[in-house]
Amino acid sequence: MARLVPETDAGEPVLTGTTALTRAAYGVSVTETTHPQHGDGTRSPEYRLFRNALRGLRQDLFHDPFAYRPLPPRRTDGPFVRRLPGRLRQAGQHLPHAVVGATALLALAVGSVSGGLPGGDVPALLSGLLCAVPVLATLVRPIGAFWLSLVVTPLVAIINGAGSDWPWMPGAFVCHLAVLIVVALRSRPRTAAWMWALTCVYGFLSDVALGGSYYYTNSGPMMVTSAFALLVVCLWQVRHAAQEKVTAQQTVTAHERSRRTLLEERTNIARELHDVVAHHMSVVAIQAEAAPYRVENPPPELERAFTTIRENAVAALTELRRVLGVVRAEDYEAPDAPQPTLADLDALLDNVRDAGLSVEKAVTGAVRELPPGVELSAYRIVQEALSNSLRHAPGATARVEVSYVLGGLGLRIVNGPMPEPSWVKSSPGAGHGITGMRERVSMLNGEMTAGPTDDGGYEVAVFLPVTVPKEGDA
């Protein structure tokens, strides 16, 4: 604690237990007096635990207890409800409400006929209504329904003055037990524990202070029955929460796996295009350097033009290697052979036939040389589609159609159904091949469709646009 006091005597002794620091420039003495602190850091763990428990009790049962919280409809995608027909599935949304309503009717009936009053009397009917109201209140105000059930319990006992059960008459017993279960289902385990503790306190006080002439108390059966019921509810809630976390984690994992697959495929495409473009840029640079020597006495303008072409090609090649070189892994080795094109398609089909897939090829249109990126992507798409046929439909037949059209290149790879019976079982995949094909098609602004056929096979159709250079374009 800091205290500022006027400086009256520089030679005044300092009090014991204080630290005095005289500042002549300000003409005051700053005196610091130490006092023991009583913050949270010095409290015992038991005190902090007790304080946190009281805070939890206040938050769960005392903070706005009559807040409006209507019971939401049941989901229709559950394992049981989704098997029902249309109308029953829609009605299944309100199954929890119907169960609560049926329980309220049960509490009404038990509260009306099980007391010491005739079932047709007005007090008996009033007793049944008092038992049913808290159960119905759980549909809209669950915490308030718990407090209402505690208030209703002694009222029902007073109305049934000649009853033999204390402190819970049969109707109040059914009412309070149902309220505990419903509220526990609509809240968290901590709230269920507090409700059970308050129920125990109420039962103890009723037996000690208000038991009177009652020779039988059912506080023990209420405590045991409610404890088992709430324990089952809490275990179900914990298991349900764990399942939701696992489902959410699986969804995130699947999304990350799909995203990682997409990035890996883009990396592979970038590597392949890097090799293709780097090869052609190197050829341009070499040809530009050798071109002046092919002409006798070339004019200086021509030499400067070829020099500029070579410098630009080398600069572009350097930038290309600098930018796209980051996609290479440390253990990546550039292929010695050139990247495959559609001219190598026959060798691919022979390799697939050796693996056991009967495949035929059909080419339509005028065969011509296409841009290297289109040739490479077309080859990879056919390769991946045939690999999927081998994996998912072993023993089936396949057909590869290559169509050279004016605006681009069309591909169609279709396989028939797997023969029955088959000695070789299909191996399920994660769909990464389709992702890679779509990425290649998207890179070239093409179109792709993939899906099962009517006869049980599978078809992949792709169109890769190719811009036709106009005459006179540089």
Structural notes for this entry:
With about 475 residues, the protein is α+β, with helices and mostly antiparallel strands. Helix content is about 55%, strand content about 10%. A hairpin with a 5-residue loop joins strand 7 (about 445-450) and strand 8.
How are the SSEs ordered, and which strands pair?
Layout: E1 2-6, E2 18-23, E3 28-33, H1 45-62, H2 86-91, H3 95-113, H4 122-137, H5 142-159, H6 170-186, H7 189-209, H8 219-290, H9 300-324, H10 345-354, E4 358-364, H11 372-392, E5 397-405, E6 408-415, H12 432-443, E7 447-452, E8 458-465
Parallel strand pairs: 4-5
Antiparallel strand pairs: 1-3, 2-3, 5-6, 6-8, 7-8
Which labels suit this protein?
474 residues; alpha+beta; 5-stranded mixed beta sheet; 3-stranded antiparallel beta sheet; 12 helices; 54% helix; elongated; disordered N terminus
Strand content: 5-15%
Number of helical segments with 4 or more residues? 12
Radius of gyration: 42 Å
End-to-end distance, in Å? 85 Å
Low-confidence stretches: 1-39
Helix fraction, binned, reads 40-55%
Coarse morphology: elongated
Provide the succession of SSEs: EEEHHHHHHHHHHEHEEHEE
The counted number of beta strands is: 8
- The average pLDDT value, as a whole number, equals 79
| Structural category | alpha+beta
Largest sheet: 5 strands, mixed
User: Strands across the major sheet, in which order?
Assistant: 4-5-6-8-7
